[in-house]
Design a protein that fits this description.
127 residues, mainly alpha, two-stranded antiparallel ribbon
Length: 127
Amino acid sequence: MLWNPHINEDVNKIIEEPVDASVDNTKQAARLIVIRRKKMKKHKLKKLRKKMKFEWAKLRQKRELRKEKEFQAGLIQQCKTAESFSAEEYVNEKLAEYNMISIPKKWKGRNMPESMIREKMGLPPEK
């Protein structure tokens, strides 16, 4: 073996880290923990979706079926009301409403009973 000037003679000597109280060499891995949690949540969510895929599809289908039934019931109700509609009755109601005499609540700025207002207007008393 040849002599190499770059090799230290004290090969067996253990090199120790210098002791300095002002330097803190502890690693801060808070961000790594956050990333790890995020990845784990993502993994668990994928696993849950895979597991519950068909159960959720069944629930979704039931929900859509229920909505469809409610919609159909509403349509049937609309059809029934349309079939029970009578144009003659409607016109008669509107004409009666139009021909009805409205009695004011006040007469010349004073509150009075309806019978007195009818009397002053020259209308027959209410039956």
